[in-house]
Write a structure and sequence with these properties.
Layout (H helix, E strand, L loop, with lengths): L4 E5 L3 H13 L3 E5 L2 H8 L6 E5 L7 H10 L8 E5 L11 E5 L4 H12 L38
Parallel strand pairs: 1-2, 1-3, 3-4, 4-5
């Protein structure tokens, strides 16, 4: 059985990586993307079971990504968790939950479990085929472990 597939769209690399690794450790498959265009493009590929999106993404904002998701046949009922540093300035679409960034891991997990309900499918965490949150910002996740990067000291 395939694990639950969660699409995370967040421009903040550290926040995206933290959510990704935490949800991977909980047995979910996660696809991280850095902007709304990549999220919208990803929706044309494999169907996510849950969308977690920052409302204020670059290129295409999170509200537009949600609108696209809701307009696609077969995806209109995919649950959505919207995240942002501040509460949204306008009402969210029906059925969209909100969580303030940075996301507390236990609140994030509770929201994911609530939104997925009985559809949550988990697998034991393994070292196989995990997306690299530090890969070049592209529309597809690289399936490998992150390579440590040297930091300039000065």
């Amino acid at each position: 059985m395939e694990p639950t597939r969660i699409l995370i769209a967040d421009a903040d690399r550290d926040n995206r990586a933290a959510m990704m690794w935490f949800l991977l450790s909980q047995g979910f498959w996660v696809e991280p993307v850095a902007n709304g265009l990549d999220a919208a493009t990803s929706l044309d590929g494999e169907r996510p079971d849950l969308l977690i999106t920052d409302l204020y993404l670059p290129v295409v904002n999170g509200r537009r990504v949600i609108e696209r998701l809701r307009s696609m046949p077969g995806l209109a009922r995919v649950p959505v968790l919207a995240i942002a540093l501040d509460p949204p300035y306008a009402a969210l679409p029906a059925g969209v939950e909100f969580l303030k960034k940075p996301c507390d891991p236990q609140l994030l997990l509770a929201a994911v479990e609530r939104l997925l309900g009985d559809d949550a499918r988990r697998i034991p965490a393994t070292r196989a085929a995990r997306p690299d949150p530090f890969a070049a910002e592209s529309s597809s996740a690289v399936l490998s472990w992150p390579v440590p990067r040297r930091r300039a000291h000065g």
